[in-house]
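A.,

Following up on our hallway conversation. Structure tokens first:
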């Protein structure tokens, strides 16, 4: 296994990790920004107001994107397993 193969494998692993976390992080960012603007406009400084909607939205997005995430992970894993003979050489 060469250095280039290891770097390519690490690059793909990081890419799939970022791709899978993107929907959840984007949801948290958008909901958090909306709630922050709402708090600034109304001057309501309740701590639970920031966490509860963000968590609920992230759970909802997670359940909607779960089939896509599982497909991406199984594709990556199956490609990794199929390439094991090439890694050994």
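Then the amino acids I'd put at each of the 89 positions:
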């Amino acid at each position: 296994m060469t250095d280039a193969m290891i770097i390519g494998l690490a690059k793909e692993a990081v890419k799939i990790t970022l791709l899978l976390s993107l929907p959840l992080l984007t949801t948290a960012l958008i909901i958090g920004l909306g709630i922050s603007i709402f708090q600034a406009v109304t001057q309501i400084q309740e701590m639970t107001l920031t966490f509860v909607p963000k968590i609920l939205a992230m759970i909802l997005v997670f359940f909607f994107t779960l089939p896509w995430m599982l497909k991406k992970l199984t594709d990556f894993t199956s490609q990794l397993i199929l390439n094991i003979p090439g890694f050994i050489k």
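Helices lie at 3-42, 47-82, 84-88. Curious whether your intuition agrees with the design.

B.
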